[in-house]
Design brief:
The protein contains five helices and five strands. A five-stranded mixed beta sheet has the order 2-1-5-3-4, covered by helices on one side. It is globular.
Amino acid sequence: MKKTITLTLNGDARSVDVETTETLLAVLRNKLGVKSPKCGCDQGECGACTVLLNGKSVRSCLIFSVEVDGQEVVTLEGLSHNGPTPLQQAFIDRSAFQCGYCAPGVILSATELLTVNPHPTQTEVQEAIAGNLCRCTGYESLIEAILAASRE
């Protein structure tokens, strides 16, 4: 069954026809052209599909698109229109990523954390990104970049 939903995507009002069984991830990637959320598992375990829904990090592969009707969705593309955010710059400056597959999800999870807690401890950072699987870095560089951004 089809339904038209309206959402605010990265600051812009958008309307899109969706199947009621389509996930938010599928609609973002296939109908709205947003490519930063990745499909790593389709089970919500890897965090590669993380987006901010009304300011909270969520796994877009676990949410039906019809559930976001009238809501605000922010992806990596919507964090800044004027160059990297301080958090993104901290990741760049510290070469925090290797392959980059997990980058959007980690940055969005960390963005939520720094919004509610501008000066987190290392343990709080670890907890905030615990749902984001990174197969390359061992997490140390990710955690250091988030902590560095919180100091700047």
